[in-house]
Amino acid sequence: MTVEQVKPETTGTPAPGLLEPPLAGGGVPLLGHGWPLLRDPLAFMSRLRDHGEVVRLKLGPKTVYAVTTPALTGALALSPEYHIAGPLWESLEGLLGKKGVATANGPQHRRQRRTIQPAFRLDAIPAYGPIMEEEAHALTERWKPGETVDCTTESFRVAVRIAARCLLRGDYMDERAERLCTALATVFRGMYRRMVVPLGPLYRLPLPANREFNRALADLHLLVDEIVAERRASGQKPDDLLTALLQAKDENGDPIDEQEIHDQVVAILTPGSETVASTIMWLLQALAEHPEHADKVRDEVESVTGGRPVAFEDVRKLRHTNNVVVEAMRLRPAVWILTRRAVTDTELGGYRIPAGADIVYSPYAIQRDPESYDRNLEFDPDRWLPERVKDIPKYAMSPFSVGNRKCPSDHFSMAQLTLITAALATKYRFEQVSASDDTTRVGITLRPQNLLLRPVAR
Ligand code: HEM
């Protein structure tokens, strides 16, 4: 039986022997757990395991289920009894389009994954090497020793440029990547506000912030239309993701429609830039905060390259650099919360989950859990050495998720993050300037509030 054949039964009776998950503590009258979740979402999610492996949360009148152990997050992500839905996805769909891979389910999702997957396969990544190298070195060359670097803008720029140039190839991308960057940064800021504080009609008022958001959203969609139209007009069919999308067929063997092509490009560029940009910011913060690891990265890179600029082919030899990236992602995962919806009456860990229920879990909480990690809050890249990694429970470190919704871009992302970290740590040491604020800003992703660094030449 497939997920699509299962009809949600909202009035289903609980299967015998299954328990109702306990209600989490910390709720307040009327708002329930909405209040602590809004006030300090990371601390709230991190405490939930104290109340049970699966717990109920009251968000106003609504009951939401939270999963708190690595094993159960794996079971949830791998089970066909849950699909992508819920308030997070619905608000994304409203703004970014309904036909992209990130929000589709069932046969449409499987077909779309088949179309995009080849562009992200391990053996496809080396073709992106020259662009990744060029962008990583351009970043270090743009920065001047002693001058303050605005890490938010710079990280967004390099992430968008790499995704756009590698996946949607074309000379025109150079100028467009800058526009995409500006549009995406504004759109993500506004989207998070709309999700957390759903003030509906107020966002339609002609206020400066709303106008700026609407302009950025319109420009994002316009840019995507321009990219698609220019590729078509060029008559070129390079072996890239955009060609794959333009040649894709639907379930009946017919070409996919214009709206789906558009929504697919949006659905790949938007998660692709925000997540990588946030992770680069945290990597920069980690290099500044842990100079001993930055020095170790530099030593490793020099021992591999013998002093020449680091290249894409060096990446697989950079073990410590890779471990620094993984450890930064463990403590500051870009994607800090994920949701699913039960397709049918089902169970998790012996607890009853009714059809239609929304389930949340937090990779941030899972990856910092003291039950999974020794000295859980310590930045310790060596915990990923082969002799120590075996002590870490399965699914306790899944920043790209697992199962059929696993990020297609795990290899693509790890390659560029390792290369960028190597290029940065070889050229500079970093110091935070006094106006810098590296506290965590919770949005659609986690990133530092306003990271400002001064590069110091090595
Ligand atoms: C999905 C994380 C980079 C494209 C996901 C998911 C996670 C994730 C956790 C699964 C969501 C879920 O289970 O509900 C990350 C992280 C990244 C990263 C941590 C970098 C540090 C990228 C990049 C791209 C990308 C660079 C594209 C250029 C996508 C797409 C999906 C996705 C299209 C939806 C897949 C589906 O639903 O089938 N990502 N991602 N991601 N990611 Fe990434």
Written overview of the protein:
It is globular, with a radius of gyration of 22 Å. It is α+β, with helices and mostly antiparallel strands and 458 residues long. It has 16 helices and 12 strands. It starts with 33 loop residues before the first helix and ends with a strand. It has a domain at 1-95 and 338-398: Cytochrome p450 (Orthogonal Bundle). Helix 6 runs antiparallel to helix 7 (151-167), helix 11 (258-289) crosses helix 12 and helix 12 (291-305) runs antiparallel to helix 13 (319-331). The strands form 4 sheets. The protein has a 5-stranded mixed sheet with strand order 1-2-8-5-3. A 3-stranded antiparallel sheet has the order 4-12-9. Strands 6-7 form a two-stranded antiparallel ribbon. The model is unreliable at 1-14 (pLDDT under 50). Bound molecules: protoporphyrin IX containing FE. Protoporphyrin IX containing FE is lined by residues 101-102, 113, 163, 167, 267-268, 271-272, 275-276, 279, 334-335, 338, 399-401, 405, 407-409, 412-413. Pfam families: p450.
Blueprint (SSEs and pairs):
Blueprint: H1 34-39, H2 41-47, E1 54-59, E2 62-67, H3 70-78, E3 82-83, H4 87-96, H5 106-120, H6 129-142, E4 149-150, H7 151-167, H8 173-196, H9 208-234, H10 241-246, H11 258-289, H12 291-305, H13 319-331, E5 338-342, E6 346-348, E7 351-353, E8 358-361, H14 363-367, H15 386-389, H16 410-427, E9 428-432, E10 437-442, E11 446-450, E12 452-457
Parallel strand pairs: 2-8
Antiparallel strand pairs: 1-2, 3-5, 4-12, 5-8, 6-7, 9-12, 10-11
The protein binds protoporphyrin IX containing FE (HEM).
Residues 101-102, 113, 163, 167, 267-268, 271-272, 275-276, 279, 334-335, 338, 399-401, 405, 407-409, 412-413 line the site of protoporphyrin IX containing FE.
